[in-house]
Amino acid sequence: MGIAHDSRAAVKKLRFLIYTPKSDVNSFRGRIEEAFACPVLPNHVECSEHNYGGVVCDVLAPEIYSSKRVMMYIHGGSFVGGSRASWRGFCARIANKSYSRVVVPEFRLAPAYPFPAAIEDVQSVFRALFTEEQIACSLDSASGDKSSMPDIIIAADGSGASIAMALLFNLRERYRSCISRVVLLSPWLDMSDDSHLADGKKYGDEILSSESLCRCGEVYTYVSNLANPLVSPLKSAQELLSGFPPVYIQMGEKEILLADVKKFTQLLDSAEVACELDVWPGMMHTFQLSDDCLWETHLAIEKIGQIVSGSNRADVQVCFDNKPRLENSIKSDA
Questions:
Q1: How many Å apart are CA 102 and CA 223, to the nearest integer?
Q2: pTM for this entry
Q3: Which of 20, 167, 186, 208 is most buried, by the most CB atoms less than 10 A from its CB?
Q4: Does the pLDDT of residue 324 top 80, yes or no?
């Protein structure tokens, strides 16, 4: 049976992801877990727990995956909520469609752990993941495989995009050089006071409001820090974006964030960074996380998988190795 298009149910569910001025922290987190936690993972994806740099992470592995490629996914949740458990089902679908292992960190959350706690956590995870993957690639190289560098994808949604961009800005060249792509879903890019979203106007977004974004910014960091590029990537200088990996941004047509994202794509273009903005007609903020309500979600995740794996490119050749389960891999030149 196909998935019906029930936008009303999708909006009701996705609103749980937005921390509002009236929200209680514990209730907000509980609603996210109740709405999004997935007891059974789809597509035979297996989940294991791994400690990277002192941070507990999910490692989601599909039956077939690229031995060189791994995705680090930084979840949204308004800086306040969300967890690897509540994003597990969604990230498992991405793992399956992109033929990639996906690492989901359990980073610290505001308000108990405000900026820069989450950034510090994901940096620790990235460095440990990079080291582990580099060692694995070196062993493969010693056994005859010519490639000795890992292929790391950084992906994020909503408020997680701010954390992901801060991670990238802080990385040294030796780390950043192995990141082949950045994938952002409905990214939060400007939390500053001079953002057009802070003008008090009413917008047609069914999920987000300027009041909610303002409240999330206040909880995440102090007001004078909101224009910091590590909080608002749209405020970044061009030199911060120099040598940036290609960026793919996917979002809905109805989002109030669309104007910010278009400005950000112009900023990337001026820094000569490849960027694809993929706007889905009629869709709302983080619509990809409402797979039980919207059939478009499945097409969107499939598109993400194609972008990550390169399966939509004629110049990428993929071959399969026969290995035991969870060691199955696709070796790609991408």
A1: 34
A2: 0.92
A3: 186
A4: no
